[in-house]
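=== RUN LOG ===
request id: a7f3
mode: sequence -> structure
chains: 1
length: 312
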Amino acid sequence: MSGDDLELGIHSSVNVVFPQSLLRDELDELAAEVLLLEDESDLSDLDALVTFSFEEAFLSADLEWIHCILAGVDAFPFEALERQEIRLSNSSGVHGDAIGDTVLGYLLQFARRLHSYRDNESKRKWRYPDWDETFTLPGEIVCVVGLGTLGQGVTFRADAIGMEVRGVRRTPTPVPSVHNVYTPDSLTDAIADARFVVLTVPLTSRTEGLIGSDELDAMRDDAYLINVARGGVVDQDALVRALDDERLAGAALDVFETEPLPDDSPLWEMEHVIVTPHAAGATDEYAERVAALVRENVKRMQHGESLANQVV
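=== RESULT ===
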């Protein structure tokens, strides 16, 4: 396949994160025809597709390759894609610094009560914190569950400000900025005395429901759970119960079992819960980073090579 023969579509769903036209501009010098798609009827004659979400129509199109602009591709039907011989790649690796910055922001909000002050501002409420309500981060224990690109974006920042950093991964090999590495079978030991537990694992059969009642009970009652992984990694009902019973001090949640978070979710009303709209990885460089992966994979596709970040 020559470069000029390749037709690459940019699905309208990417507009959730950045304008389609922005990605097209980033791919301006690509040796392929780049098309902006308005609806599913535009899929005909495409060789490849860049998308945010999965649509059933992708399976009946004559696609050779789909690139998801997200790192998590649990919404894509792997077996069906394999049957159709459609390769799937993701954007793992582009979010490490953005996620790391966001998590650091969560830690600072909880330690310095910044979220409470912001809530009080809209009420014109002047309230000084109780003497034991605030704390500083140096010396506090943070346990990061998942030490891939996202997790290391967190551990690097936590270590830099003087926190005691623990990590959980399948192999207990050393990781920069992590003082102690645990394996999943020692998860409760790793989180038992941590002030913050940060989830950065992908959603798989192994990680679904990873944090449930037993794990929440193992955490300190002044601990905070932070989830920038996937909603399914946490038993959300168990988390709500733990927060209601004050068995946890709070939670920062960027991902949920159902997204957008339903209006009737009790999480909206909880004072010490920070809700963000699956935006922890958002950055003005998002399209540029995705474009770099797409350019690399177009070259590989044209040369019959395996794709970077290939999942299927």
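=== NOTES ===
The radius of gyration is 21 Å.
The first strand starts at residue 7 and ends at 10.
=== END ===
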